[in-house]
Every structure is written in structure tokens, then in C-alpha cells.
Amino acid sequence: MLNQTSILRVISKLLIPPIMLFGLYVQFHGDFGPGGGFQAGVIFASAFILYALIFGVDNARKAAPAWLTRLMLASGVLLFGGVGVVSSLMGGGYLNYSVLANDVHAGQHLGITLIEFGVGLTVAGAMITIFLIFDGLLRAEEED
Amino acid sequence: MIDGQLPILQVVLPLMMAPVTLILRNPRAAWMLTLVVTWATFTISLSLLMQVLDSGTIIYKIGGWAAPWGIEYVLDKVGAFVMVIVSGIGSIVLTYSRRSVEMEVPEDRIYLFYTMFLLCLTGLMGIVITGDVFNLFVFLEISSLSSYVLISLGKDRRALTAAFRYLIMGTIGATFYIIGVGLMYMMTGTLNMADLSALIPAVADTRTIQAALAFLTVGICLKLALFPLHLWLPNAYTYAPSVVTAFLASTATKVAVYVLIRIVFTVFGGVGVMEGLGVQHILMALALTAMFAASTIAIYQNNVKRLFAYSSVAQIGYIILGLSFVSESGVAAGIIHLFNHAIMKCAIFMGLGCVVLRIGGVTIKDMHGLGHRMPWTMGAIVLGGLSLIGIPMTVGFVSKWYLVRAALEKDMWFIAVLIVLSSLLAVIYVWRIVEAAYLKPVPENAAPVHEAPISMLLPLWVMALASIYFGLDATNTLSIALDAANALLHGGVL
Lengths: 144, 494
Known about the structure:
The structure holds two protein chains of two kinds.
Chain A: H1 6-29, H2 37-55, H3 57-63, H4 66-89, H5 104-143
Helix pairs in contact in A: 1-2, 2-3, 2-5, 4-5
Chain B: H1 6-24, H2 27-55, E1 58-61, E2 72-75, H3 77-104, H4 110-129, H5 133-152, H6 158-188, H7 193-203, H8 207-224, H9 233-239, H10 242-267, H11 273-276, H12 279-299, H13 304-324, H14 328-359, H15 370-373, H16 375-389, H17 395-409, H18 413-439, H19 454-472, H20 475-489
């Protein structure tokens, strides 16, 4: 196991918070600069994956239990679709963000931020789930 | 106001409910929710079809962006008709599914089954309604990825290899499609179907566009399992859970045929690729080969599900044959066979699902004496079989009648003869099942068997009777198909 090396443990402990912060930066900066939900989700999930590599998958599962990743997967899609439904209920047609706020620019801004957040949630959930499932498969093979 | 939102609801409703089933995690609740969603989409489809027939094509702009830049949803007669087929089959199959899924899918995965089913429905609906070639690709992937998962949920471990093989072939098909879209985009700078059909004639003589057409046709033909690109289909249909087979056999390949229609008659509508570039002859030759080769292979199958899977490949041949005539009655015959084949294959595969539930297998041997042990189930399967042959008073007869007429109109009498001859092959494979079920004695050590539960028999018989009803009274379906064919051939207006 990699957790024997104290260098790795200390460095990764140092790195994980900035990685997560950078993920959030890419997430919420996405509507003005390079970035967006997909990249942010991957970066955010990579912090979890690093944690799992160094401190073991069992600890990572404690931090991100199955119900949580499942909820992330589902709620991201619901948020994205929900923004569309709300905008059509407000009379603008599906995913027409302009009607979400009083002024068109604020509406577009709000809409894009929200759907990108939905994308980020689902992508991060998917990345973590895929990584943890692969680990589960490897263990099942070792047990066989 | 809600009226204006109906087209988008068709995609959004199943899409949004899929994650809800994931959160619910309860098999019964997931089934109930999916059932409500499928019937709602069916109701909306019917009302959209009425609207299209009354007042013409419906256009919906996503996000309020105007057409060539934004994605628009366009529903014309063909689209609305295929949408009714997909959602109708979906709601009948879902009504039937509960018992069958409980038996064939591990319990802790049942809610995932319904999540995937809803995503698959989302994808199929989206393909039918979108007016944007790239958006179509996205929906194609949604429906394909979810159907790989659905197939792999089969009990038999061979379902996994079948799903994997379908994944490889399906991905190649989707890749070819997107390469074709990319090449078109390179030459025209647009992805909107109506826009493409206006811009393509100017650049039609370039090699890039011809390569695009080649990639698109081959890619889509992989998806719709046109002989000899059908190799993924028999195993996928055989080892998938019965409910999945019934649903995919009647919708997935049909929607792929719809994509072919859209590309050939709408996007390339101004060019006349069917006649001009000889696509017509290639499709016709392959369709005829499919009708004979696949029917012949079907005769030698011992697994009845596999037998009908090969028969599906043959039936796709009839549909493509109809399109390849490029005449009004030919295209109409193709479109009407989409509908008719969906009904009869759905009935047959649901019937086989009942057999799996009670007997546990569907080899010819399992069928021995089944006509006496499960009379209602076998009755429906035989009705579906008669329709496959094309006996008068069944839907199959209507399709074949129009195919033969289309052939004669073009003075291709030999093709008319071939259509009739290939139907004789269907007689042979259907007879094998009838013989096993009614003329063979019940095996001596057979355990007593009950008829399938009413919750499964009812939807099964609705489909079986529909195959008679639409055979007796085809006026409505025919007039829609003729209208649609007419619209497609005259510029393929969306």
C-alpha cells in the first residue's frame, strides 16, 4: 500500500484541498473563461481518487458513500433538466435562460451557472463511482 | 401554454424521471413511475400526431435560439408516426414488464433496469424529434449506451458478450455517423437538417460530401442491422431479458430506419442520392439478400428467440426494399411496415417472454405440446407468426401487398416474385413452431404448467389483436404513411 510512505501522505494531504478549490474555481469561473462543469467535475473527482490511492479505497468510500455518489449522479441531471423545466414554466421555452431573471443578461448568467453546476455534480459523481467500481472488480477477482 | 411545450416534454419527461428512479431504488416504485411516464409519452405522441396531421409540421426552438444556430426540434408526419410507434410499444411493453423483469433481472438491479429503460426511451424519442444532425448523434448514443446495459442484464452470461459485441458494432456505427456529420459540417458549416438540405446541392459533387454520404449510410445501416451488418443482432436479441427484446426489436432498429429516411430523403433530399449515386441499387440488393439469407438461417435455429431475431433481420430487408423503390407507394410500404413489424414482433417476443416465465427456456424442444399447456400465449405467438408470413387479414399482408404493388409499378415483376417467395421461407420457420406446439405430444415428465399471469397476457393480446385490427382496417395507418412518403419524396420538407 502507498500509505506506508509518509512523504506521499503529507504531500497528498497538502495537495487535496487546493485541487478541490481549483475544481470549484474552474466550475464557477466557467461562464467567463476556460472551464466549465465537465472539467471541474473531473478535477474535483481527481482529489477523491488521489485520496483513495494514498489512504485506501475503504477510507475513500467512507468519505463518498454509495448513496452520496448515486445522489450526485441523479441530482446533477435533475438540476440541468430542472432549469429547463423552470424556464419553460416561466414562459420562455425549454432552456431559455433569458426569462430566469428580470434582465436578460442576469438570466443567461444564472442559467448557465446552474446547468454547469449540474454537469459538474454528475461528472464528479460518475468519475468517483467508476474509480471505486473498478476497485471493487479487482477485489472480486483477487477473492476468486 | 402547455400545448406549446409538448414536443420537448417527450424528451424531458423520461430524461428527468430516469434519475428519480435511481434515487427511489425501489423496484415496484420504479416500475410504477416508468409505467406512468411511458403512458404519458404515448398520450402526448398521439396528440402531437393529430396536431401534425391537422396543421402541419411542429417546430420547437431549444433555448429560444433561432434555427441554423440553435437546436430546433422538428416533428413532421414521419416523425410523429414513428414517435407514436415507439411510445406505444414502450407503454404496452412496460405494462407487461413487471412479472417478467422480476423473474429475469436480479432484484437489486431492477430499479437500474427501469432507469436504463427510461434513458433508452429518451434517446429514441430524441432521435425522432430532433432537427439537428449532431443532436441526433447525442440521442443515438443515449439510446445505444442504455440498450447495451439493458441487454447485458440478461440472466444468461452470454448476454454480456452479446452486449459487448453490440457495443463494438454500435460504436463503429455511431463513429461512422459522426464522421459523416463532420464532413458535411466541413463543407456547409451547418448542422441543421433543413439548412443542410438547402446547402448540400451546391457542393454535392465534391468528394467530401460523397464520402460523408458513404460514412452516414454505412454507419446507420450498422445500427439498423441491414444484412450483412446485422451480426450483432441475433445474440443481442437472444440473450437480452425478454422485455428488452420485445422493446428493442420493435423500436431501436425502426428508429435507425427513421434516421436513414431522414438522411437520405431530407438532408440529401435536394440531390436525389438514391437514383443519382446508385444508393438505391445497393440498398435493394442488400435488402433482397437479407430477406432470403436471414429467413433461411432462421429456419435452422433451435432457439425460438434467435429464430425470430433472424426473422427481424429479414423483415428489416422488406422495409429497406420499400424505401429503395424511391416511389410513393414504395416508401409508404416501407413506413407502414415499420409500424406493422413493430406490432407483430412485439407480440411475438412478449409471448416468448411468457414462455420463459413458465417454462424457463425457449428452444423448439421447450415448445413441445405448449399449444395445449399455454393456449393463450401460444395463440398470440401464432397470430404474430401468421402476420410475419403475410396471411390476408393480418398487418403483414398489408405491408407485403403494398411492397408488391410498388414493385409492379416500377415494372420490377421479378422483385414482386421474390417478395412472395421469401414469404414462403417465413411459412417454414413459423410452421416449425406451430408443429412443435400443437402436433408434438407434451413431454412425459413435464411439470404441470400454468398459463401466464393476466398482467402479461393482456398486453400480449392487445398487440396480437392490433396485428389483426390494423390488418383489417389499414385506412388510417396507410393514409399517414402515404402522406408522409409524399412529403418525403417532394423535397423532403421538414
